[in-house]
Amino acid sequence: MLKELYLFQISEDKNFQQLVLPLPLHSEIRDAEFYIRRDGIIFNADGYAHPRDAIVGAVLYAPIPGGSKQLFGIAYEKTTLFSDSYEPIPYALRGEYLRTLDPDLDQTGKNSTPFIYEQVLPINEFVGYIPAEHAFNIATAGALGDPEQINNDLSDLGKLLDVNLFEFAPGFTGTLALGQIHNYHDLDILFRGTNEQNRRLADKMRDLVVQEPDRRLHEGGKSWLIRFFNRNGVTDGTLMCCFFGYQKLEDAPLRTFTMRILEQDIEISASISDATHALYTPTIVSLYDVQVSTINGAKVKERMLDNFPLIIYHTGSRGELNYGDRVWAHGSLVEVVTPQLTYLAIVVVEREGVRNETP
Q: pLDDT tens digits for 300-318?
């Protein structure tokens, strides 16, 4: 049973009242936006494919007495990281913790590929959501408090990348979208330009961290290409955590689909021939020179056809792959059926299932 007492408490908060809007049409659910459940849980929508009357995503924050983070006037705890750490809890272990909050949140073994580590929750359990652009606009305008720190960081980011950020329909996600505009650990900014604009911006970020590696974030067992420090780097900079979304929802290639596993376990290495959709969730790239090394644990030595799709259905690889990169992947061979096409692909759902082998 949902504990609506928490919702009553947070709904009295001024930031909540300004940030949270009525639910969108189901067809307009976007990746990386926050939904507020009737028990106060803050849920992050993942991707652009959502079953009828439901949302696919992950519980991000839960109201916990004595929790380490104050949101909307009460204590919360982040459910995706180990306590007092920025290291992610492995996907396979999250269900056990979520069960302590609400048994219905532990959906281990219930959802089919590629949603096996996601939660799929009824839309009628939610009371509102926080659009990323809306959060950006009211925060930078000062409606949530003095925006000086935010605006200084945004100005420096624009200068660092030599772009006008407002050309990319910027939005906030992360704690800034929840009203935490002072003394934040990182600035989570979401860009929704055209696919071409987003790619040019991501390339600028990649060039920056390659040319100035001290700016680059090293976390979660990897070095990030679209997460870096502004100003003078780690000495006085703010961590910029950058995200990308589709400007037009119809550009998302996987909105309505089914997926059937043909081979449960396959390991490959390949080069990337097309990275148009590498910035988003799911992360999708086309491969060439595909070398298959194992199938269901048995060693093989086979090649696949060029332009073979790799679908990464988690949030840990977006923005980390580009044209020409050599990539290793461990996932499943699947048949994907959309209203327009039926095709074979490799799908990866494990965070450790993809590795960019290009320096």
A: 988 887 889 999 999 989 9
